[in-house]
Each structure stands twice: as structure tokens, then as C-alpha cells.
Amino acid sequence: MECSLTARDRVGLQDFVLLDAYTSETAFLDNLRKRFHENLIYTYIGTLLVSVNPYKELGIYTKKQMDVYMGVNFFELPPHIFALADNVYRTMISETNNHFILISGESGAGKTEASKKILQFYAVSCPSTRLLDNVRDRLLLSNPVLEAFGNAKTLKNDNSSRFGKYMDIQFDHRGAAVGGHILSYLLEKSRVVHQNHGERNFHVFYQLVEGGEDDLLRWLGLQRSCQNYRCLVKGDCAKVTSINDKNDWKTVRKALSIIEFSESDIEHLFAIIASVLHLGNVQFDANIRGYASLSNSNELHWLSKLLGIQTHVLQEGLTHRKIEAKAEEVLSPFTTEHAIYARDALAKAIYGRTFNWLVNKINESLANKDSSRKTVIGLLDIYGFEVFHVNSFEQFCINYCNEKLQQLFIQLTLKSEQEEYEMEGIEWEPVPYFNNKIICDLVEEKHRGIISVLDEECLRPGEATDLTFLEKLEETLNGHPHFVTHKLADQKTRKTLERGDFRLLHYAGEVTYSVKGFLDKNNDLLYRNIKDVMRQSQNNIIKLCFPKTEPDTKRRPETVATQFKSSLAGLTDILMSKEPWYVRCVKPNSGKQPGRFDDVMVRHQVKYLGLMEHLRVRRAGFAYRRRYEVFLQRYKPLCPDTWPNWKGTAAEGVQRLVKHLGYKPDEYKMGRTKIFIRHPRTLFATEDAFDVCKHQLGTANKTPARLLTFFLILEIKLSFSTRIETCWRGLMARKEKEKRAWAVKVIKKFIKGFMTRNQPACMDNSEYLAFVRQNYLTRLKDNLPKSILQRNAWLTAPPIMQEVQRSVTKHLGTSQMPLSSWFIVLTRNLCSLQLKATASSLFRGRKENYPFSVARPFADTRISKKDHPLSYSVPVIKYDRNGFRPRFRQLIFTQVAAYLVEEGKVKQRMEFSSLRGVSVSNLSDNFLILHIACDDVKQKGDLVLQCDYLFEALTRLSVVTNNKNLVKIVQGSVRFDIQPGREGFVDFKSGSESMVYRAKNGHLMVVSREMREIN
Ligand SMILES: Nc1ncnc2c1ncn2[C@@H]1O[C@H](COP(=O)(O)OP(=O)(O)O)[C@@H](O)[C@H]1O
Ligand SMILES: [Mg+2]
């Protein structure tokens, strides 16, 4: 795959930054088209990812692909959504800050798919435990549930998101995904009661009717045909070949259980979906007085059952409203027209509020209970820019939202870029860009903006209508360059506008909106008495959605548009506090066809997505910048003049450093407070060199000659470092993969072993039986009989050991072996078990690699028998107190002292009486530090040792010194005496690779591989 990726990679340019004619839209388009036709749908502009919807499965999202992209530098592999996801993740880990990925593009361009791929990548690539796997499953499964309730088929997209979604994925300090939180934005509720031709209601309705089990449908009073439900067939396309409602139902049903919805919640949820279907079928007749009366009592019966509200209460609520007359409240009957309006308003309210309940419930299930600090990656997948034949209030809100996101994009990339250059005194080649602030203001400005005018009209007493709203708009916005109506237009434009239309010139193009329904949709009024009716419901979810404490409608609630405006302002604040990354999705044709690249359509998107401007900024500008102090502090070891300390200013230090590193003049610029680096590759190469250097510095002996050699070598390495890093990251990813494959093998073997446990020992069960034996012996250790004569007090052995047990107990009674020999054998074993028990009390649950030592028997000595005059001896590595050079030694215990010996020569003797203690870390390294009390400064200090038999040696030591409190298990760092009065430190941490080196701060850094205990 890697090879084929490299071959594919040669098509066109994978980063537009390298485009010669970078100002030419045609060249841009040519490159995009060329790659698209080779199924290369991703191309970069620096770190921004452009993605063209292929409308076909490309097989590029496999687990294998994820492995390829895991941990590899962004620019070293062909562009991919996984590369972006991986880069964001690694930046978050190394900089411990928050990020977000803004995925934008018009409806059907591939935003939701992109966000799902990112989530899947994190689910596979992040470290996890069994506990975290739960979070991971929930994060992944929240998607089909939210899509069922919030997505629908539209003319643009068979799975169009009809709500905005911002999802935070929370990571702990180890980079594991530990929780999530979802914010949802403005669900298009009107779809519940009306769909345009060729569109459908929300998926969940069709899924229930098509996929629900017979019993369930019977219980809900539903029939298995969408044609029976008016609100499912308004668009006349209940069945769509690309959608499998039956299968999707199964997925959703399973997901609901996994994200911890109780059976009762699920029942009540289904009851609500069904009640909306029944409500849609409720019809009204006019009685003789012209008032509405219900024409079908069957629907009312089911509504009453499913919502748990008495029939007559429901009936009254659906046909009357309460009005206040003087001090009294009286019921006023609806006309049929009014009743239909109230019914639809209720259906929308029930569905909309249930959707919010669902999001909250999912959030509860994703919530991370631990309060330690988290970093987050936010994913924003919000409805794309939308233009239909007839556009209404919903499109107005959606396109306003896109306008705001475009503004944010401009602010974050173009404008802030320019401003910073100016601040830093760096010459800026002006990049002209279209600032859409004028359109945002047109919509949202106080008093003058469209939303203000709309609200005013909604709240105004008297006969306000959609048309009076249009007139107000014309009065207020007459002459605005981005606003036109039939009345305000010139002759030519007028022909393209109806009388009830207004047209906005959005950044993405012109959209004509029909004002019909604007007032109602913005008011979103639900009569007060129908709310009272819903409050009587016995359905638990409806009870929560219509709380008794809801403020009464004496004061008008905020209108929909104003609420939306505030929530978008909130979203902007959330995003502004994080580091941005962008995926710009492009739709290649309007027919959802694979392989068709419609030049006109793509050109238009390239233009309005601001891709050309972004490219120009990238080419004019510099990819990275760092403050001088930060840059110098990090990279000063790369130059002999700046290492270890630079005496001059930070800026001078940086200048010296980059000169030494051979930066060419056009690769960087010096600003007032920062260095600007033009290409990412320059920074990567520097970073790679730094990685190499870090390790070298730990061991380099810093005589001038050696330093010079060291720097020479370093410079050679610098040029190779990029390549080395690629290989290294690839290797790490492959190792991780091997580890997982190993785990799968072990688990499979375990299961096979279990299944064949009662068969004679064979390949399949040998390891499992060894495990059973060990397990039995461990239990036996804690439950040994008090006397060898208590034959019945032995623990029952597993089947494979029963033979042995029988023979032992038989021998105990009738053996030819004298009892004294038995006693010796047993005592020796008991002694060994006793030692194991002591080890357990010292280390169990306190040191990471202890569980792996349990199965290894303790030996009396580790040095060969022939030179064994002492009570215990073991080989160790001793680290010099100055410089931490490793030396091979033997550690020997007698009854009174410990000796450190080199080839028969005693190098150090330590009386046990002067042994103050032994420190070991809680991690999986094998280091021990012997602390020795000594006042004589000329004496040697504490001992830093590494021992492969750490648990055995320390258990022996604690027994021979008869001191159970000798061993101290510490976290982080151990202070020790280099010699009396001079202190040194050993720092411990976990990492992906075991390493021991002298850190820059002079401490001995011990990095051990994190170990997971297999339970
Ligand atoms: N990367 C992709 N590979 C294959 N098909 C895709 C890809 N992205 C999008 N699609 C197709 O396009 C459809 C619309 O994509 P979607 O992400 O729902 O659009 P948006 O969220 O931008 O409206 C999907 O249902 C899928 O069929
Ligand atoms: Mg979508």
C-alpha cells in the first residue's frame, strides 16, 4: 500500500503551495481535476486539507491505512484526512493545548463523512484500556443515533445533516480519548410536518416503520408501510435505493443500548416517534359552527396511550386554546386551519425537544467523570451552504451560519496573519480577499439587520404578516449592495424575482429567499394550553421535555433566529479559544455521480471557499513562527555557540543558531519578537535534529574536541533526519500494529486453550494449562494447610493437577519416602512461597512490572554455584554517580552487609546497619537506589543500580535485613547522595521505548515501557 501510495502521489501536486502559477484559478482547478480523476481526492494548501467528494468507495480508510498514517510527519505521505487527524492529535499532545477542526463546504460535499473518518481514526489510533474502549464505542455509536434523528434525505444529499454539530473529544495526559461532549445547533424541525418534493422526513421514522419488530409496531399501533403516514410521504419518496432503513434500524437499536439508554428510555423514545406519526395523521373537520373537531378517534386513542395523556384532555388541547378574558381564562375553539397549525406546532415541539433530550442523554453517556486536566479536539460538522429552488427561513439560518464560519476563517487565517506581520514589522505582500463582514452585518446587526427587523415584526402588535416584514426590510435595507427585492431591483433583475422574495448576495453566491412562513417559523409558537396538556404526560421523556417549571409565556420567549444568533456567537467564542485546522470539502457535481468533475461548479466553490486567497497567503507568508526565547531555549543545543548558555539577547542567539544550521536567507525572517520560518520542512528538519541531539547530549562527554566531533556528526544527521524520522515513525506504527496482532493471538490462544482444557496436553492448551497451574499455585500460597498431616485441607486442584495432588496426598499417608524427606521438600517450597508472599506484600499493586515477575521462581543465588559462599548474589548494572556511565557488577548479600563486586574485587561494602533504605519507581523499570547513611564526605555516596531480578533481590534484601519497610516506592523522581552533601536525581517516566540517558538538567532519566497487566 505504501508503495502504491508513493506511485499515486506523483499525480499533479499534493500541496498547492508548490504550484508555480499559484495565482491562477485555472492551474488550481487543473491540479484538483487531475488528481480527482486518479481518485486522489485530497490535496493540501499547507496544513489545510482540500477534499473532493468521490461519491464512491475508494478503500482508503482501512485499518491498514490508519497504521500508515499513524505518527508520521504530515508532509511525508500523500495528503489524507488521517494525516490531518494525526497531526492535530500529535500537536495537541506535544503542546498540551486545545484544537478544533473546521469542516466546511456545501451540502453534500462530504463534511459529515470527513468528521466520521476523523473520529474513527482517533478510535483506532489512540491508546486505550478496556474502560476507555467503552468511551470509544459510545463516541462512535453516538453518530448513527444522532444521524437517525437529525439527518434526512434532501435533494442535495441522501444523508443531509439537518442540525449543526460541534463535538469535543477529550483526551487525558496520555493521549487516550476519555470523553466527549456534543453541542447541537438549530434542528430543522419544519421537516417533521413538511418535506419538499424529493425529500424525506428524518431517517428515524422510516427506520422504525421499516425495521421495527412486529411486536414493537403492534405495541405502538403502527403499520409496516410508510405510505400510511402523511408526514412521511409529503416529498413522495419514502423509499430510496441508497438508504437501507431496515439495516440502519438495527444499528441504531444496538447503539442505543451501548450508549446506556435504559430499556424504559428506549420504550418511551419509540413511543414519541410513533406519536409524532399518529399526530401527523390527525385530521380535523369543521362542525356546523365552523369550528374544528377531530375526525379520527383511532389516532387519538394511540396518542393517548403512547403519551400517557387522557383522551379528552388531548382532544380539548388539539381543538381549543385558552385566552385570558379579564380575570378569567376561557377556552376558545379553533377553526380547522388554526387546529392544523396547532397540531403541526405540537409535532415539531415534541420532536425538537426530544432531539435536545437525546443530545443531553448522549452527553451524559460520554461525560468524563474524572476531573483531571483534559485537552480537546473539537470537530465542527455544521450544515453546508444550501441553495434550493425555493429557499425559506431554514436556508436563511443555515446560510447565515456559513457566513459566520467564513468570517471566522477569514479572521483566523487571513486577517490575523496580516496583522501579525504588521506587528512584527515583517514586510507583507498584501493579499486581497473578500471580507464578508458586510453580509454578516446585513443579517445580524442590531436594529438594522434582517434578524432585528424580523423580530420586530414578530413581536409587533397588530396585523404583522410575512409581506409586511418584507416591506420593513425594503424600508430599512434599501440601497444595501448585498440585498435586493422585486421592488428594489432594476428592470433586468426584477424579472428573476417574485413579489414575495428577497435576495441576498452571500459570499458563496446569490440566494433568493421566499418570505412565506418566516414569521411563524421565527415565532415557533406553541399554545400555552397545549403545553399544559403535555405536562400531564406519563411518558418520562415528554415529562422532562415539558417541565412543570418552564417559565410561562407571559413574556415572549426569544425568537428562533435570535436564539440561533446567540448560539452562533457562543460557538465562535468556543472556536476562537482553540487552535484551528481546516478541511474544505468540495462537491464535484450536483448529480451525486462518481468520476464527474463539473468545472463550473468546482470553480465556483474554489472561489467562495477562499481557497485561492488562502494559497496566496501561504505563498506570501511564512508557515511557522516562534518567539525568540522559546525557539532559542528549545534548539540551543544544536549550535556550540548557543549551548549551554547564550549570553546575548534571544534574537541574536537565534540569528547565530539559524546561521549555524544553514538556514538560507529566504527560508526565514527575523521579526520584532519572533522568528518566521517560511516552509514547514525547515522546522521539521530542525525538530528532527533536536530529537537526535537530545539523546546525544545525555551521553556526550563535553570536551571541546568531542563537542566539535559531536556537532559535525550532528550536521550530517541533520540532513538525514527527515528521512530517519519518517522511518522511525513508520517503525513505531508497525510495532504498535504488531503489539495488537500479538494481543489478538494471545486472546485467541487463551480461548482455544480454555475450550481444550480437558484434553491431553497439546499445542493448543499447553500455555493455558501452565496458566491454570500458576493460578492454582498462587491461590495455594495463601491457603496452605497449617500442618502437612491435614490431608483434606489442601485446595481442590484443577483437573490437570488432580493426578499430582492425589499422588502427593497418597504419599503423605503411605509413601515409601521417609516423612523427614517430605518435610525437607515441603519446607523448601514453603520457604520459596514465603519469599514470593513477601515480594507480593512489598510490590503488589505498587510497581508496574511486578505481575510479570510472579511466575518466575526465586533462586537462592544468581551467580554460578561454584563461587557461592554467600547468602545471595545477583548481577547488576551500576551507574556512576558522576556522569551515569553504566558498569557491570555483582551485588552480594551476606548476613551483615551488601557488597558491590567487580570481577572478584570488592568495590564497595555497605553494612546493613547503615542502609537507610532502597528507592524504586512505581513504573516498569528495574532500577533501585540504595541509600547509605554516611557523614564522611570522602566516602562514596548512594548506589544507583539496575537489576534484572529486582523483585527477587529486594525481597532477599528485605528478609536478610529483617526490615519490611526498607523498600520505598516512589513516583516521578528520586533524590540521592552523589557523595555526602552533593545531591543527584533519577527521574522516572513511561514512554513508548525504554531508555536511560543523562538529561539536560543533569538528572539520570529512566524511561520505561508502559506495561498493561493482562487480567
Ligand atoms: N470520502 C468519501 N468517500 C466516499 N463517499 C463519500 C465521501 N464523502 C462523501 N461521500 C458520499 O457523499 C455523501 C454526502 O456526504 P456528506 O458527508 O453527508 O455531505 P455533507 O455532510 O457535506 O452534506 C455521503 O453520503 C457519501 O455517499
Ligand atoms: Mg452533513
Automatic annotation (TrEMBL):
Sorted UniProt keywords: Actin-binding, ATP-binding, Motor protein, Myosin, Nucleotide-binding, Repeat
GO biological process: actin filament organization; actin filament-based movement; endocytosis
Location of the TH1 domain: 832-1010
SMART domains on file: MYSc
GO cellular component: cell cortex; microvillus; myosin complex; plasma membrane
Matches recorded under Pfam families: Myosin_head, Myosin_TH1
Annotated spans, Actin-binding: 568-590
GO molecular function, one term: actin filament binding
SUPFAM superfamilies per the UniProt record, alphabetical: P-loop containing nucleoside triphosphate hydrolases
Amino-acid positions noted as binding ATP in the UniProt annotation, renumbered to this chain: G105, E106, S107, G108, A109, G110, K111, T112
Organism domain of life: Eukaryota
Family matches, as InterPro entries: Kinesin_motor_dom_sf, Myosin_head_motor_dom-like, Myosin_TH1, MYSc_Myo1, P-loop_NTPase
Location of the protein in the cell: Cytoplasm, Cell cortex
Domain Myosin motor: 12-691
Main location per the UniProt record: cytoplasm
Homology family: Belongs to the TRAFAC class myosin-kinesin ATPase superfamily. Myosin family.
The protein's name in its UniProt record: Myosin IHb
